[in-house]
Specification:
150 residues; mainly alpha; 76% helix; elongated
Amino acid sequence: MRRLLRTPGLLLGIGLGGFLDGIVLHQVLQWHHMLSSWRSPDTLPGLRMNTLWDGLFHVVAWLFVLAGIGTLYARVTRNHRQAWTSGALWGWALVGWGLFNLVEGLIDHQILGVHHVHPGPHQLGWDLGFLALGAALIGAGWALQRRAAP
């Protein structure tokens, strides 16, 4: 069962991690937007551009969640309750969330510089913390899925 849940769990984790990032960091805390280092959200045209790209980001996150659910139901033909309550699924989801953080943190924050977790005098620290959280999520998820019942 663990092997069957790997892909759905990873897809769910990537999508849910994206939603958490977009909702908490972009909307609730308003620390950054998708393109805030490239196009300032302090002007109306800049805010419109950033809002559009935040929305597109959420569409991609939604597609990952949808793909995870679809893959789960395609692979697990019986006993969906066991799959949804399995430590293997949620362990892989944590791995997926961690992978999201690492990829998004390396590409968007470091390589492209489209935004940083929390701009300002300590932005490198926030960016490194985001990467460290990604690595910790991968480690915790890996351990959880390994301990799950087969």
